[in-house]
Amino acid sequence: MLEHGSDGTHNLSAYVTKALFDANTILYATTDDTPVALTVAASRIVGRKSTGNIGALTAAEILTILGLDSNLADLTTTEVQQLENIGTSVISAAEWGYLAECTAAGGALLDDAAASNQRTTLGLGTIATQAANNVDIDGGAIDGAIIGANSAVALTCTTFTSTGIDDNADGALAIVISPDEEVTTPLQPSFSFKPASDQTNIAIGTPVTVVWGTEVFDIGNNFATPNFTAPVTGKYYLSVSLELNEWDTGASSYGVALVTSNRTYQRVTAGNTIANDGRINIQINCIADMDANDTTYVTITQTAGTQQTDVDTDSVFTGILIG
Fold first, then answer.
1. Fewest beta carbons less than 10 Å away: which of 46, 79, 99, 294?
2. Which region, left, alpha or beta, applies to residue 201 given φ > 0 means left and ψ of -120 to 50 means alpha?
3. Whole-prediction pTM
4. Regarding beta strands 223-224 and 227-229, do their DSSP bridges make them parallel or antiparallel, or are they unpaired?
5. Architecture of 190-321 per CATH?
6. Greatest CA span in the chain, whole angstroms?
7. Which tens digits make up the pLDDT trace of 100-129?
8. pLDDT (0 to 100) of residue 170
């Protein structure tokens, strides 16, 4: 295109007039052969995004092109200088916050120089460095902990302080320790029964089983007259005290037996132990070995004499698991 027309005048179509160029503008084109002025505002950079035309891009748009975190757009000069430390010195918690999404707590952890410092930041004590199969706990309190939940475990204590112990089955304490250190076992299997009425005129020549109809206590509900049934294998203290009325001095003997599944404990008393017919007490006390589901009961046998003897309601049959 000619710069001058045939008449000698200037042909301005080939030029961009300087009147288009205000302050802070540059020449650019978005279509062929059509240059125009682009005003570049403060804090902008001329560039082109992945889509669209050339433009005066914001800092955020430039960061997006560079694939950097948008938080970098808010960095102060001092903070930019801090970032220059990366690769040459320790990075501060504040600096970490600009490299990735990170909370203040996470930045504090990343800022720590060593694992011991990180444990301090997290509030962890020395237990964090101990092996899982060899943990030593000195002092403090542990609430709600279960020891040996999945497998049996041996527990050694030099000093043991507790208000009670249970098996976590139902929350009931199997062992209770009072403030004065008295120890009780409120769930230990035990019983005490008396006859509901006199058992009169017992038969002669054959064992008569004593019937116990009045419960004093029955911990574990293991008594069903006339038998106590052992709930677990162990050693049981058993005691029977028979109050007998109308004792017959003419009888050859009276035999009281405490019968268990494993053996029988008995006491034989001659009829003429007392001078005249009347009242007498016969007792048996023993420690019996009983297996789970073994039973025990009491019998009395009168040999010869007159059928007149009664088992009085003051009689008592008791027992307790002792080990």
1. 46
2. left
3. 0.55
4. antiparallel
5. Sandwich (2.60)
6. 171
7. 556 777 777 777 888 888 888 888 888 888
8. 64
